[in-house]
Design goal:
44% helix, 26% strand, two-stranded antiparallel sheet
């Protein structure tokens, strides 16, 4: 007979209590895992905050003296950001996104879109940029956060840096 040791107690494992234990453990794990819908606003805010920090660094760096630039690089490295390793904000965004591509329309209800993919696998996140007709004028941008068999999206406001990032990348399509 097998025994399960939990904190100084040894419990004999029968088929019944093993199945009950695994079922309870599985139920607990499912309840402990937040859904993409519950996580998406925090994940978007993290992306937005990182873009904001990078943009602030490059704005401050561009307006600094040589001595101040050296100090900014040291502080940046100490914080663990490493923005100073990039030429500018565009270079940072370009090197930290996984891909930029066009995704064809699935059907008439789901139009094609440009995708700025930030991460891949489980979980993954991306911006989907929908344009007006065949133009490069933005109709709307959605941020998508996806994990295995789960996903959520939220609209990206025009007053966010993430919107500006998507516009900046889209402008290269000309």
């Amino acid at each position: 007979m097998l025994h399960l040791r939990i904190r100084n107690a040894t419990i004999p494992i029968t088929r019944f209590n093993y199945l009950a234990f695994m079922e309870k453990k599985t139920m607990l794990n499912i309840k402990e895992q937040p859904t993409c819908k519950e996580l998406i606003h925090d994940k978007f805010n993290q992306v937005e905050q990182t873009y904001q920090e990078a943009n602030n660094f490059f704005n401050e760096y561009d307006n600094a003296t040589e001595g101040e630039q050296i100090a900014l690089e040291v502080i940046d490295k100490h914080k663990g950001n490493y923005f100073h390793e990039y030429e500018d904000f565009f270079d940072y965004v370009n090197n930290n996104a996984l891909s930029w591509d066009w995704v064809d329309a699935e059907d008439e209800k789901n139009p094609g879109y440009y995708r700025l993919q930030l991460s891949w696998g489980g979980p993954s996140d991306e911006f989907r940029i929908y344009t007006i007709g065949d133009t490069l004028d933005i109709d709307c941008i959605n941020y998508h956060y996806m994990d295995w068999f789960d996903g959520a999206s939220i609209p990206v406001s025009e007053d966010t840096l993430s919107f500006d990032v998507c516009q900046m990348i889209l402008d290269l399509e000309v």
